[in-house]
Amino acid sequence: MSDLSRRQFFQFAGSALAALGFGQLDFRSSADRYGKVLAQSTSRKLALLVGVNTYTDLPLTGCVNDVALQYYLLVHRFGFAPEDIRVVTDAEATRQGILEAFEGHLIDRAKPGDVVVFHYSGHGSQVADPDPVAPNPDGSGVNGTFVPVDGSLPEGYPEVGGTVKDIMGHTLFLLMAALKTENVTVVLDSCFAGGATREDSRVRSRAGGSNLQISPAEKAYQQAWLARMDWTRDEFVERYRQSVAKGVVLAATSPTQLAREMSINGFDAGLFTYFLTEYLWRETATPESAMSYIRPQIPNVLRQTPLLEVKLGSGYETQPLYLLDPPTPRANAVVTAVEGEVAQLWLGGFDRASFETLGVGTEFVGVEGSGRVKLRSRAGLVAQATVEEALEPGTLLRRV
Fold it and tell me: pTM for the full model?
């Protein structure tokens, strides 16, 4: 992860830390130290986490926070080494930046048997598909895309059409297929329909339609990958229609629905990512059990139904999520920094209802028997606590 990426990633926490009295405390090194120790005895695990807030058209507020949710979960619960997690957010998350990161960090580095996670939070859209690989569910002749930070609408839209720099679902399929391991999990927190808002939520969708075309560079990129893998178009179509390319895909919505982000306990995040990660802090889950938990958490009025797909015949839906047994115990929180008698906590393992009962004086103890802290204040998922029994950064906590 570059220093620029780290600054962008942790920027969301800076204001919370300042509000809690930590000022500019840099807690990255503690996560690095703990993650390296935890990952020493485990197999190689690689992750690429992409989050885009700063769109010119309809900026978002929770996508970089989604990256933080996944980052802390992967490091402190699933044993990923921080240096094996690549974070691409906002200005770095151009079409070229995302594709180069996927190739360089995942395709070039992953070996057979390695664990790979790709997460995307941002706008989804739809564009005309001049050469459809599979029929669109609604018969509209458009195809779903992921919108990079430079995926702006053409001037004069919607009266005037044009090309956009989106990344097609077809491209993601090819990139997944190019990975040298089958142990792949893709998490997509975006939607594939026109923009709208409802009450206090924001929809992760940039406007689209049949008068938008994909850029020639995107189609050329797909053709280059077909040639590299020595696939004919017919082979690609057959594979695409059969199932996802590899592993597991967890999507925030069905192809025609809207994915939403909102403020949850003072923390802006995608509903899907938030519920997924807080559940995984507390449970050893399979994709099926995680979806069974998440779906009822999203209000019916939002009409957002998360979708699970696995490679045909793999049985991955009943395997541990991320195709990896968590090497650490269940927890409600983790210590991310200690300064004297004050500890900083990340409260990733609480559901919405539990947050209402978290107040000054709430006590936490180490899940493995050492360490105790008492809550002093909280801003979103970042909290400040008084150390009552010595502990180190990386200590997992449960509420007393």
Answer: 0.89
Q: Which 3 state secondary structure label does DSSP give 179? A: coil
Q: Is 202 helix (H, G, I), strand (E, B) or coil?
A: strand
| Residue with tokens 């590899």, as numbered in its chain | 246
Cα–Cα dist 117/248, whole Å: 10
CA 336 to chain CA centroid, nearest Å: 20
pLDDT for the residue 30: 46
Q: Which amino acid is located at 83 in the chain?
A: E
- CA pair distance 284, 75, nearest whole angstrom: 15
The two tokens of residue 349 are: 């393992």
Of all helices (H) and strands (E), which one includes residue 319?
none
Q: Which of 13-27, 42-56, 302-316 has the lowest mean pLDDT?
A: 13-27
Question: Residue 311 contacts by C-beta under 8 Å, 6 or more apart in sequence?
Answer: 182, 243, 244, 245, 246, 247, 248
Among residues 147, 117, 84, 71, the alpha carbon closest in space to that of 248 is found at 117
- How many beta carbons lie within 10 A of that of residue 177, not counting itself? 18
C-alpha 395 chain-centroid distance: 23
Residues 86, 342: Cα–Cα separation, whole Å: 30
Name the band, by pLDDT with cuts 50, 70 and 90, for residue 254: confident
Q: Cα dist. 4→36, 95, 108 in Å?
A: 21, 18, 22
CA neighbours within 13 Å on the CB side: how many for 182? 8
Cis peptide before 158 (omega within 30 of 0): yes
Could you give the CA distance from residue 252 to residue 363 in angstroms, rounded to a whole number? 34
